[in-house]
Model the fold of this input.
Amino acid sequence: MNKELRLLNLLCIVAAIFFLALIILNAIAAGSISNMLSTDNLFVTMVCLLMALMFAVNPLLYLKSEGKLPIPFTKKQSATTPQISGTTSPPMLDAKGRAMPPDVRAMVSQMGQAKTKDA
Done:
């Protein structure tokens, strides 16, 4: 599966570079600025930009999920920081002995709290 994923990402990157090259070729072939700003050339440029973006999204999301693409201005959660506040108790286990995710633990703890009715 890993080889297929690498091949898919490589093909997507090649396709994105191809569409960016088409944009450059279109700008060179247009000659002057007035020809480059014609409706037809702007349409071809926008379609090529959209296609390059569509092919570049998969590899970028893969790099982000692997942690190899740093995203600026985002806070990183450390492994010691609990994701949900107040979850310092030992992990709850399901029927097979696996640890429950933090969101399930939060829901279970909310169900256990007694609700007060308005008078």
Notes: The chain has four helices and no strands. The first helix runs from residue 2 to 30.
